[in-house]
Design a protein that fits this description.
It is found in: Cell membrane. The chain is mainly alpha-helical and about 400 residues long. About 80% of the residues lie in helices and about 0% in strands. It has helices spanning about 5-25, 30-35, 40-70, 75-90, 95-110, 110-125, 130-160, 160-180, 195-210, 210-225, 225-240, 245-270, 275-300, 305-315, 320-330, 340-360, 370-410. The relative contact order is 0.15.
Length: about 400
């Protein structure tokens, strides 16, 4: 693979992975306008985000077996086409219930990009390069929070919130064209893989039985769900509590996105000296300390608008290290079931994300406490799961070794 081919493939995989982040980030500045236009509340509009995350979580489980059975391209064509149609439906929505339903369909289509991109990384690159490739993908994905809310804010003011979904449909149409003409096929269809529910569940069970996958998929799913609390609550915190405009919120969001970008590139250098496991453990400890300071300081009133932005920047910086390393460790044990593994990993993340975003809406109290409290809870739970799982794995490994030695002695 030439350097040019390497760049083009990563770029397309990155854009595929940004379909869902763009769909989440771009309409956040439009929340107040949507609530006003559809005669509903901000908390109800937040449920459209929850519906999107539920759709991603469920959809990824469906696409995993389809990507393994039919290859990577055909499910991509179907899913992206559904996304484009649902985006137009979002733009034409005249009630909050219709918008929520269209967002669910939009997610069911767009989530194919997340699963296919991760499976194609496993198809097209050697295991030794997976973490570095995921870091580069995360860089492309991290650009979306810098661009999407800013574009969404200006589009909302200039053309109304409906225009956001027309823009999303147009962008995804261009991505679909790139997938068709440029992206390699990756793993070929495998007719031997059955789509019978029993066989599909068997594939998922095979993946779940792998201790390394289960550990890092859960850790990655819970710890990387923290930004979903930020996504669900930040527009309300900054626009309704601190009274910033839609454009100003877009710039704040873009600034905080830098916290995601820089660590993804730092990760490539850290991997030359440290293991994936060491990086994840250190990062979760760091985020736990920052998160506790964030909660205590917010409750005590230490931070104004700019102090809160600074602490969020420090906290979100850890996501750029946790995400690529957890993804690499989760997928490394698999070849044949890479699609199912990617689907389960993504489903865990978005499933936790939907719960987190709904929790922020449910606990809404016109303060920043629900947002920062749930963010901190996510990383603390991730750290606990990591520490407990590593001890269990070490114990089982030691027990297995002792059993083998005992069997040899008896012989």
């Amino acid at each position: 693979m030439t350097r040019r081919q390497h760049f083009v493939i990563i770029l397309i995989l990155g854009t595929l992975s940004t379909v869902s982040p763009f769909s989440i980030d771009m309409y956040l500045p439009g929340f107040p306008a949507i609530a006003s236009d559809l005669h509903t509340s901000i908390s109800q509009v937040q449920l459209s985000l929850t519906a999107y995350l539920i759709g991603i979580s469920v959809g990824q489980l469906l696409y995993g077996p389809l990507l393994d059975r039919f290859g990577r391209k055909l499910p991509l064509y179907v899913g992206l086409s559904l996304y484009i149609a649902a985006s137009v439906g979002c733009a034409l929505s005249t009630s909050i219930n219709t918008l929520i339903a269209m967002r669910l369909l939009q997610a069911l289509g767009g989530c194919v990009g997340l699963v296919a991109a991760q499976a194609l990384v496993r198809d097209l690159f050697p295991v030794s390069q997976i973490a570095q490739v995921f870091s580069l993908l995360t860089l492309v994905i991290a650009v979306s929070p810098m661009i999407a809310p800013t574009v969404g804010g200006y589009a909302t003011i200039a053309f109304g919130w409906h225009s956001i979904f027309i823009i999303l449909a147009a962008i995804t149409t261009l991505i679909l064209i790139g997938v068709y003409f440029v992206l390699p096929n990756g793993r070929l269809p495998d007719p031997a893989l059955s789509l019978h529910p029993k066989a599909v569940m068997g594939s998922f069970f095979t993946v779940l039985k792998q201790p390394q996958f289960l550990t890092y998929a859960l850790v990655g799913g819970i710890a990387t769900a923290a930004p979903f609390a930020y996504l669900a609550g930040s527009s309300d915190v900054f626009m309704n509590i601190y009274h910033v405009s839609a454009q100003e919120y877009g710039w704040i969001f873009a600034f905080l996105a830098i916290a995601l970008i820089a660590p993804t590139q730092l990760n490539q250098f850290l991997l030359k000296r440290f293991t994936n496991e060491q990086i994840i453990l250190t990062t979760l400890i760091y985020q736990s300390v920052v998160g506790l300071l964030l909660v205590v300081g917010t409750w005590a009133g230490w931070y104004g608008q700019y102090g809160l932005i600074g602490m969020l920047f420090l906290f979100l910086g850890g996501q750029g290290l946790t995400n690529p390393n957890a993804s690499a460790l989760s997928l490394a044990p698999f070849t044949r079931h890479a699609g199912s593994a990617a689907a389960l990993m993504g489903s865990f993340r978005m499933g936790f994300g939907s719960i987190i975003s709904a929790s922020v809406s449910f606990l809404h109290n016109n303060t920043a406490i629900p947002m920062v409290g749930i963010m901190t809870t996510c990383v603390l739970m991730g750290l606990v799961i990591l520490l407990v799982s590593e001890r269990v794995i070490r114990y089982r490994s030691k027990q297995s070794s002792m059993d083998e030695q005992l069997a040899e002695a008896m012989l």
